[in-house]
Amino acid sequence: MSLSSALNSVQSTFNNTARQSSVVSTNIANANNSDYVRREASISTSLAGAQVVSISRAQEDALLKQYLQSDSKDSAQQTLVSGLEELKSALGGNDYETSPSTNLTAFRDALQTFRTSPNSTIAAQSAVTAAQDLAISLNNASDAVQSLRASADADIATQVDTLNNLLSQFESANNAVKSATATGADTSSALDEREKLLKQISSLVGISAVVRENSDMALYTSEGAVLFETVPRSVTSEPTATYVAGTDGNAIYIDGVALSAGEGATSDASGSLQALLQLRDEIAPTFQSQLDEIAKSLVQIFSETDGSTSAPGLFVWTESSGAAGDTPTSSNAIDGIAATISVNTAVVTSAGGDPMALRDGSISGITDLNSANNSGFSDNLDSLYLALDAKRQFSAEAGISTDLSLTDYASESIGWLEQYRSDATTAAENTTAALSRSSEAYSNETGVNLDEELTLLLDIEQSYKAATKMLNAIDEMLQSLLDIAS
């Protein structure tokens, strides 16, 4: 080997180790960055010697696709569970202490006490108080349902804005990748940024990514709507100012196509937006219908009639127009009756009423079943008590059994919610585990392993030392030649 060849070899080694050291140092600096994909300097050997020809990136498209799918599913399931937990908390937590079902049972017990002591003013007042608690629990539950819907609607508006912003950023990142690819520059940083945005987008809506010529990428939702193709597509949803029973929330449109709501406790939703639609437009309205069915039945059971005319008795309600509601006769749900049901002031002592009117069946003023004012009269109380446990027909719109007693229906309503929440929680545990496995598999292939990087750094150091020794040897040879020449 000539001295010039040796010098070229040393120079090549120094250049290679410098680039390799830079790559390894960058890897080590980003060891804890989950959005960073490991780089590696690729060395090729030719007649001109060894040289770094490219910086490769540990890209794993199949694992990335699996991670994005798992992330979308987990984001949707966690959003669903969060909403159900919020509703459960509003109803009293683990034992649903403040739910209509619990208060209906307490009212039924108070009515039983009153019917066994029909001359007791204390028992009468206790029954009226229990009825007020029941009405308030229905009001509060209805408010909680509509609050959940309003909260979901607000989250949808926020996340739609976020998604549009992410798609705008994605356009810049995608253009950077295309530009670097076209010019032959290192695309690693641009690809990292684009994948980072992909992960954020996937948590909002399920996506399918397609890589085209020049590393260009197009994005589609899991339902096939175009999210990004050369330019971002518009994602829109008009917020609804106020939610009451019967209010329909506005759809989310992606490139003019409505996004569907998720279905089932183990939701088929991909991304939090579909789960929010499921909470707002499916779960909450169904539970509201169940509450309205309970309230409607209470008004019907405790209504009073003289044979030709019927009027609300113990329980009254207000129509959306503000007028006092009549005794419901329809088998269909009455939107919002649970929000306005209350106890007739004719039996409330603090309002100047007489609680004994419940015993006598004279609350509405159209009849008096105890015209003789018999203190032991219990026929009406017996009839009302038995009516609570008698089977009746409920609307099929509420999503649970249609042929039950009111007490059983109220219990089944809570059972429906708890079963939904429990199944959703189990599913969330599974999606979290799946996401964890996908993330680990992706990280193992593309993440930075400090032990490997440090070992590689030692190898680079040895190469550098070898080149240094060769340079010293060449220096000594040249010095010897100069000494001979002089």
Key structural traits:
3-stranded antiparallel β-sheet; elongated; 2 domains; secreted; 11 helices; single chain; 486 residues; 57% helix; alpha+beta; 4-stranded antiparallel β-sheet
Architecture blueprint of SSEs:
Layout: H1 3-29, E1 39-46, E2 49-57, H2 61-90, H3 100-116, H4 121-183, H5 188-204, E3 207-211, E4 217-221, E5 226-229, E6 231-232, E7 235-236, E8 253-254, E9 257-258, H6 272-301, E10 304-305, E11 310-311, E12 315-316, H7 337-340, E13 342-343, H8 357-360, H9 379-388, E14 391-393, E15 403-405, H10 406-446, H11 450-485
Antiparallel strand pairs: 1-2, 3-4, 4-5, 5-6, 7-8, 8-9, 10-11, 12-13, 14-15
Helix pairs in contact: 1-11, 2-4, 2-5, 2-6, 2-10, 3-4, 3-9, 3-10, 4-5, 4-6, 6-10
Order of helices and strands: HEEHHHHEEEEEEEHEEEHEHHEEHH
Counting helices, strands and paired strands, the structural category is: alpha+beta
Question: What Rg, in angstroms, do the CA atoms define?
Answer: 36 Å
Number of strands: 15
The helix tally amounts to 11
Shape, principal axes of CA atoms = elongated
Q: What is the mean predicted local confidence, pLDDT?
A: 90
Q: How can the largest sheet be summarized? A: 4 strands, antiparallel
Distance between the termini: 24 Å
Query: Which range does the strand content fall in?
Result: 5-15%
- Percent range for helical residues? 55-70%
Q: Low-confidence parts, pLDDT < 50 over ≥5 residues?
A: none
Give the strand line-up of the largest sheet. 3-4-5-6
- The overall number of domains is 2
Domain Flagellar basal-body/hook protein C-terminal: 443-483
Domain Flagellar hook-associated protein FlgK helical: 96-304
InterPro entries: Flg_bb/hook_C_dom, FlgK, FlgK_helical
GO molecular function: structural molecule activity
